[in-house]
Amino acid sequence: MKTMKLTKEEREIERALIRGEYRPAGKAEIDEIARALSGRKKDAVLNIRVNGEDLKNIKRKAKRLGVAYQTFISEIIHRFAA
């Protein structure tokens, strides 16, 4: 049987699971998460021109956070629009 190679982060999650650090989510919590996710659905397209240096900085910050830069921009817009 082929074994999977886990990343450092995945190994830490596995150890936390074994230690019992996670708890099951209740129905109310799951419903709240589902509502939050459905409210964040992306259903519009936006095309804008931006300063090249600004875009380079956004891409660098998104990479540091481990997310796609378009997802990062969408999150920034969501936080300021709320």
Helix and strand arrangement:
Elements: H1 8-19, H2 27-39, H3 52-65, H4 69-81
Helix pairs in contact: 3-4
Compose a concise summary of this entry.
The chain has 82 residues and is an all-alpha fold. Helices cover 63% and strands 0% of the residues.
Strand portion, in percent?
Answer: under 5%
Helix percent band: 55-70%
As a whole number of angstroms, the C-alpha radius of gyration is 18 Å
Q: How does the helix and strand content classify structurally?
A: mainly alpha
Helices, by number, come to: 4
- Quote the distance from N terminus to C terminus: 49 Å
Sum up the overall morphology in one term: flat
Order of helices and strands: HHHH
Q: Describe the biggest sheet?
A: none
Query: How many β-strand runs?
Result: 0
> Please, what is the average pLDDT?
90
> What is the count of distinct domains?
1
Q: Which runs of at least 5 residues are low in confidence (pLDDT < 50)?
A: none
Explain how this protein is built:
- The chain has 82 residues and is mostly helical.
- The chain has one domain (8-81).
- The protein contains four helices and no strands.
- Helix 3 (52-65) crosses helix 4.
- The longest helix has 14 residues, at 52-65.
- The protein is flat and about 50 Å long.
- The chain starts with 7 loop residues before the first helix and ends with a helix.
